[in-house]
Amino acid sequence: MKRIKFLWLLCVCVISFLLPDSLHAQLHHTNQDLPCINKNYNLLAHVAVDSTTREPLYSSEELDSMVSKLNMFFSPICVSFSLCEFNVMENDYSLGRVVSEPITTNQQLLELKTRFSLRRRINVFFLDYIRALDCGSSTYQGILTLNDANIYVERRCFDDPAEQVAHHLGHTFGLLNTFDPTNMELVDGSNCATTGDLICDTPADPFGQSAILNATQEELDLIAQNLLDTLFYNSCEFTYEIRDPNGQYYQPDMGNIMSGYPCKCGFTNDQFRLMAETILMSTIKHF
């Protein structure tokens, strides 16, 4: 852990050396742990219209409220957002429903990006339905990939758009989900640096890992049917008795924005540090 902390500090020092003088003056700390990088990003909202009413899925007032909540989520590292444009995709209501025909889902998302996205913005597409995607999509480390910072979110998956957009902004700034169904993290954290989200201050999260129980098919079917109700519709408290391969009970952070649970409240310090590092690298490059 000391080696990881040293490498992170060394990286920040190198980044700080490369930054322009004007940005040097902006860097300071809110406390002993988190850097304050004083960065504002412009969000360009592309809002689909309802197929029945032909009204936008969200109003500009609703998205202004969303931005206010985003600013609260990211305030510990002094990152904020502004809604620079409210673009209603009203020419074709079918744009809000991304299905797999006559072209693939990914091809349709690429078409939306080509038609509507602007460079040097974080483009957020508010859609009604996206086939074969779990509530939305975004470019991992999109802030570093030639201005390819595009987020697609699906209305049917959430009541509060701020939570889902914050989740995908986390991906845009270099965060993984707290869970990885293919790479089991142990409760004791002994493999935290190489499994799950590769961050050690987020508890091991079994979301999507029901197979680790070595359960019977009947038990797995029951888990698949009742997972949502059992896990987090009880005041957002994790109550399901799932154990890791060592026999220890999982107790994930259900309020973590990068989790798969609908109880999103915030990020951990190490998540903030990684996002800050990614943002500083993007400042050097082009964004």
Tell me about this structure.
This protein has 287 residues and is α/β, with parallel strands linked by helices. It has a domain at 11-175 and 267-285: Collagenase (Catalytic Domain). The protein is 32% helix and 15% strand. The chain has helices at residues 2-18, 21-24, 60-74, 105-116, 161-172, 217-232, 269-285, and strands spanning 28-29, 35-36, 39-48, 79-89, 97-98, 122-127, 129-130, 136-138, 150-154. It has a 5-stranded mixed sheet with strand order 4-3-6-9-8, sandwiched between helices. Strands 1-2 form a two-stranded antiparallel sheet. Helix 1 packs parallel to helix 7 and helix 3 (60-74) packs across helix 5 (161-172). Mean pLDDT is 81; it is low at 1-30.
Major β-sheet, in short? 5 strands, mixed
- From the structure provided, what is the oligomeric state, counting identical versus distinct chains? single chain
Kindly name the structural category. alpha/beta
Please write the CATH class name of one domain: Alpha Beta
Provide a concise account of the structure shown.
The chain has 287 residues and is of the alpha/beta class. It has helices at 2-18, 21-24, 60-74, 105-116, 161-172, 217-232, 269-285, and strands spanning 28-29, 35-36, 39-48, 79-89, 97-98, 122-127, 129-130, 136-138, 150-154. Strand 3 (39-48), helix 3 (60-74) and strand 4 form a beta-alpha-beta unit.
Element layout with pairings:
Layout: H1 2-18, H2 21-24, E1 28-29, E2 35-36, E3 39-48, H3 60-74, E4 79-89, E5 97-98, H4 105-116, E6 122-127, E7 129-130, E8 136-138, E9 150-154, H5 161-172, H6 217-232, H7 269-285
Parallel strand pairs: 3-4, 3-6, 5-7, 6-9
Antiparallel strand pairs: 1-2, 8-9
Helix pairs in contact: 1-7, 3-5
